[in-house]
């Protein structure tokens, strides 16, 4: 079986304050592009949707544009363009610039999705 989709015609778009996700859902795996605008903060933009203090979804992300600052417990990391990062249960710091990520797996399927 061959399944092909394009993010030019996403299956789903999830909007949240200062950002959105466009996702395609395929047999066994989901993909998405997430766009975060300047001023985006986890605590204000997604925490009210998720209902948790930190993001509980396993993250498989590729930074296309901008920089994403990630904080996990006592660790902090900044991922810039052309960087893959994988992490669990993090809180993201606020953004001062636009950031675009490509996502796979649980992030594409569940991130910023209201129950």
Summarize the structure.
This protein is mainly beta and 115 residues long.
Describe the protein's topology.
Elements lengths: L11 E5 L2 E8 L2 E8 L5 H4 L1 H4 L8 E7 L2 E5 L2 E5 L3 E5 L3 E2 L6 E6 L1 H5 L5
Antiparallel strand pairs: 1-2, 2-3, 3-9, 4-7, 4-9, 5-6, 5-8
Describe the structure.
With 115 residues, the chain is mostly beta strands. Helices cover 11% and strands 44% of the residues. It is built from 3 helices and 9 strands; from the N terminus they run E-E-E-H-H-E-E-E-E-E-E-H. It has helices at residues 42-45, 47-50, 106-110, and strands at 12-16, 19-26, 29-36, 59-65, 68-72, 75-79, 83-87, 91-92, 99-104. The strands form 2 sheets. It has a 6-stranded antiparallel beta sheet. Strand 2 (19-26) and strand 3 (29-36) form a beta hairpin. The longest helix has 5 residues, at 106-110. The model has no long low-confidence stretch (mean pLDDT 86).
% residues in beta strands: 35-45%
Discrete helix count = 3
Helix content: 10-25%
Encode the helix/strand succession as letters. EEEHHEEEEEEH
What's the total number of strands?
A: 9
Largest sheet: 6 strands, antiparallel
The secondary-structure class comes to mainly beta
Low-confidence stretches: none
- Judging from the principal axes of the Cα atoms, what is the shape? globular
Q: Order of strands across the widest beta sheet?
A: 1-2-3-9-4-7
Radius of gyration: 13 Å
Mean pLDDT: 86
Distance between the termini: 31 Å
């Amino acid at each position: 079986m061959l399944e092909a989709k394009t993010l030019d015609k996403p299956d789903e778009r999830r909007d949240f304050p200062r950002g959105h996700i466009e996702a395609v859902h395929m047999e066994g795996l989901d993909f998405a592009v997430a766009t975060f605008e300047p001023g985006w903060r986890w605590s204000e933009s997604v925490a009210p949707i998720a209902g948790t203090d930190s993001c509980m979804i396993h993250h498989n992300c590729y930074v296309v544009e901008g920089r994403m600052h990630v904080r996990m417990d006592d660790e902090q990391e900044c991922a810039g363009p052309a960087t893959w990062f994988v992490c669990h249960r993090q809180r993201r710091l606020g953004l001062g610039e636009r950031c675009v990520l490509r996502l796979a797996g649980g992030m594409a399927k569940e991130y910023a999705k209201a129950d």
